[in-house]
Amino acid sequence: MDKRYARNIGMFSEEEMNQLLTKKVCVVGCGGLGGYILEMIARLGVKSITPIDGDVFDETNLNRQLLSDEGSMGFEKALKAKKRINEINSSVEVKPLVDRVDESNGLQILAGHDVIIDAVDNIKTRKMLQDLAEKLDIPLVHGAIAGWYGQVTTIYPGDRTFDLIYPNECENGRGIEAKLGNPSFTPALVASIQVSEAVKVMLGRGKLLRKELLYIDTLNQEYDKIEIGN
User: Fold this and answer.
1) Is the pLDDT confidence value at 171 over 70?
2) Which residues form the THIF-type NAD/FAD binding fold domain (predicted)?
3) 67 secondary structure, DSSP code
4) How many angstroms separate the CA atoms of 134 and 229, rounded?
């Protein structure tokens, strides 16, 4: 086994580490959540990562987005993700996509992955990802942030968890983060929990946040698990 993964052993068995090295992960969104997710997944070790984002960096990203720096303004986020992953772990195959996932391309883009990680910033796209993941029979790990607060859940095909979290079918904008803002620390925390969920999905180990929403309040340091559905 590659020496770079030596400190993973103990938490993972060698068999689990070898299993992880065969997995393919898709991260939809390379911004606040996505940058941290990509960093952690690349360091853990997987076979392939597909970072997807149709946006470019601007100055408003500098307060929180790990992939952003002053020299990256105007640069495509997905391509910067590839550069960063290559610097961290050149053995990982990176397939960046400078585009947005929609109903016309989603099935083709997302097919073949072992897990999809939601790092988008709007409710409409989250619901679409749930639909696409269900059609492809792929688990989806959701995370969202707003100011001091965050949430994480893992959605398996058929769970329809977003139908309960976001019951308003007409809601197609951003969540409450549009009002509460996004600092540097909340995305890092939520992203780390998403990555732990994704690893458990890939290894079939541990208790998932399935049909449960982990609600995080860092202002009061309160963490609650809310049951969702049956």
Assistant:
1) no
2) 5-228
3) T
4) 17
